Structure formats: C-alpha cells, structure tokens
C-alpha cells in the first residue's frame, strides 16, 4: 500500500478498534457476572468503569484485532480478547499511579483512580479488572474451542505475571533503590517484561486465534518484541525531551527518580537510532509471516508507536 494511504488506513482502523473496544468494554462491565442484586459492589464497578472507559489510544486492542484479521479472524473472538488485554493494561495503569508506586495525580487527562475514588477502591478496581480479564477470555463466548481459550489464558497469564509485566515492574522498582544502576542488558530485559510483554501478547493472541503456523507465530512474536521495545524507547525519549505532558507526568521524572531509561544509558541520539532500527526489525519480521500486503497496517503501527507524542 502507498505510504500516505497506509497511514490514513492505519488511523481509520485504530479509531475503529478504539470505538469497538469502548462499546464492548462498556457492555462487558455492564453484564459482569454477579451472584444477585442483594449486595452489588456498585462503587467498585463504578471505579472499574472509570479506569477502563473513556480514554487511551487502545493500541493493544488494535494489535489483537489487526493481527487476528491477518488470518481472516474478525468479530467477537478478537474483540473479547482485545477487551481482556485492555482491562489488564488499565489495571496496570491504576496500580502504577498509586502513591506506593508512581504516585501520579493525572492519567489520560483525568484524575487518577485513587484521586477520583480512594486508594482502597483503586486497588480493588485494578484487582477487579485483572480477574475479569481472565473470566472474559476463559468464557466459551470468546471461542468455542477450549484449547484455544486455554492457550490464550496461558499466554495472557505469562505476559501479565511474574515473568512479564508484574515481574518487570518489580525489577524497575528495585532498580530505583539499588546500589548500582541496571546495565543495558538488564534494562532491556526489564522493559521487555514491564511494557513489552503485553504488546507481544496482543500479536501472539492474533496468531492463536488465527491458528498461525509455527513459523508465522514466531515471526509475529519477533514483530511484537520489536514493537514493544520501540514503544518503550519512544516513552524514554518523550520523557527525556520534556514532551511528556500528555503522558501525565513531569518531564524527566523517570530519569530523576533513578528509573532505568535507555536514554540515560545510551544518550538521546543512540536511543533514537535504536528506536528506528527496531521499527525496521518489526517490519522485517512481518515480511517473514508470508502474509504479504495484509501486514502493511501492522508495519504502520510500528512506525506510529515509534513516532508517538503521547
Ligand atoms: C503496577 C503491575 C503493575 C504494572 C505497571 C506498564 C506498567 C507496569 C506501568 C505503566 C507505567 C507507564 C506509564 C509506563 C510507560 C509505558 C506505558 C505502558 C504507557 C502507557 O501506555 P499507552 O501509551 O497508554 O498505551 P494509553 O493511555 O494510550 O492506553
């Protein structure tokens, strides 16, 4: 596809994925299984809705939907998986914003969940989103094949848990108070876990739903890993450039806190060069899927992630 047309089509599909995710999340939260009407945790439900509706780029849902589309999978299976992943992403933001972690007042241009509600409710809202995500994926409504559902649950648990996002967050927090800073290799591993794992899951999920061949699944994983690394470097660059108002944090905050950033380790120019090399790597990996022009939109997504300003 020609470059300008591809960029336009990408925006259209990102917007469509965001709209579809918003409506589906709204419906899922409105119909969350509860034992009855006698004791509804209404404040918790309200906080879960506040934390997950009405904001965000919905990049992860877009990646699930578009990677599933590569294999001709469209509809409920991809959308429900996309919503589950977004619930986990939203939970991580709610917990990351808590005073015990990043202590942020603003997220997606609004007060953070613990500011809008209270800390205990924010913790529970995160917990509620995390557990409901697995409920949604494991539900037969997501896919009729129990093997597919189990593969999704396992991949999502690995991406979100100890060896993924939660473990990466723990390593990042430990680095803030450690006697010696993380090495480049350690920083890359920590970032791959903390932010890369959920992005990688997004495209792995498309392969699972689409019954990708082993070679295609491997290529998608390579794409997801390169995209995740590019996403994180772009975040570090935004922080260093002082362009982070839209991220809801003060410029240079991460570096100042002793957080391991690639800009701190490599310098701005080398970080930018690395980001661009990762976009090329992501694009090359897509070619390896053998799915031809169908992957153009995902290549555009890698460029978007690297160039993002928020
Ligand atoms: C608290 C278990 C736990 C984990 C937190 C991912 C993470 C781990 C914290 C997020 C902190 C943060 C702001 C990291 C920078 C990268 C990032 C994940 C940014 C937010 O993702 P976007 O840009 O956000 O996709 P939107 O709002 O568009 O969904």
From TrEMBL:
Q: Does the keyword Nucleus apply?
A: no
Query: Cofactors per UniProt?
Result: Mg(2+)
Q: What is this protein called in UniProt? A: Polyprenyl synthetase family protein
Q: PANTHER family under this entry? A: FARNESYL DIPHOSPHATE SYNTHASE
- Entry keyword set: Isoprene biosynthesis, Magnesium, Metal-binding, Transferase
What highest taxon heads this organism's lineage?
Bacteria
Could you say which protein family the record assigns here? Belongs to the FPP/GGPP synthase family.
Which Pfam families does its entry note? polyprenyl_synt (PF00348)
SUPFAM superfamilies membership? Terpenoid synthases
């Amino acid at each position: 596809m020609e470059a300008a047309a591809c960029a336009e089509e990408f925006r259209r599909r990102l917007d469509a994925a965001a709209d579809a995710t918003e409506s589906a999340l709204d419906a899922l939260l409105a119909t969350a299984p509860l034992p009855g009407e006698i004791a509804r945790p209404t404040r918790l439900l309200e906080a879960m809705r506040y934390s997950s509706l009405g904001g965000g780029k919905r990049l992860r849902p877009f990646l699930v939907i578009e990677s599933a589309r590569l294999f001709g999978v469209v509809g409920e299976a991809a959308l429900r998986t996309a919503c589950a992943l977004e619930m986990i992403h939203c939970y991580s933001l709610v917990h990351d914003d808590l005073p015990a972690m990043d202590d942020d007042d603003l997220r997606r241009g609004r007060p953070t969940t613990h500011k809008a509600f209270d800390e205990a409710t924010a913790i529970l809202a995160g917990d509620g989103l995390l557990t409901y995500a697995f409920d949604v994926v494991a539900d037969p409504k997501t896919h009729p094949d129990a093997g597919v559902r189990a593969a999704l649950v396992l991949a999502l648990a690995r991406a979100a848990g100890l060896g993924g996002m939660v473990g990466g967050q723990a390593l990042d927090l430990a680095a803030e108070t450690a006697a010696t800073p993380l090495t480049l290799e350690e920083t890359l591993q920590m970032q791959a876990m903390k932010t890369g794992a959920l992005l990688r899951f997004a495209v792995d999920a498309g392969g699972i739903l689409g019954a990708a061949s082993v070679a295609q699944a491997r290529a998608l994983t390579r794409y997801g890993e390169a995209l995740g690394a590019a996403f994180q470097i772009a975040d570090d660059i935004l922080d260093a450039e002082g362009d982070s108002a839209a991220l809801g944090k003060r410029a240079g905050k991460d570096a100042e806190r002793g957080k391991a950033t690639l800009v701190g380790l490599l310098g701005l120019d080398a970080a930018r060069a690395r980001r661009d090399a990762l976009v090329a790597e992501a694009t090359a990996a897509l070619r390896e899927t053998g799915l031809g022009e169908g992957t153009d939109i995902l290549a555009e997504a890698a460029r978007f992630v690297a160039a993002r300003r928020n």
